[in-house]
Design goal:
Layout (H helix, E strand, L loop, with lengths): L1 H13 L15 H14 L7 H16 L5 H17 L8
Helix pairs in contact: 2-3, 2-4, 3-4
Length: 96
Amino acid sequence: MASQDKWSKDVTEKSDALDLEEGVFRKDDPAEIAASLKRSAEQSGKKKSSPYASAMSMLTFHINRAGSNLSKAEKDRLEAAKDELRKQFGRAPKNG
């Protein structure tokens, strides 16, 4: 499992997808998380898809890789950041 943890940490830290602000996923405010991801996605010349898709993919990747290591409050905050990201990109909120 340690090699898998190292792999996901390397992807998050060294990914060519986005240059993330340090500590972005530890921010308290979901809107700040979303704004930081949006900024990173819009400024990145490395992304292969739209800024929205890149930002959402990185957030989803982090949630999935952190998995059971996230407390309910942390997961709820990051899931709320997905809704904020949709709002900030002018996308319809996810139903349900």
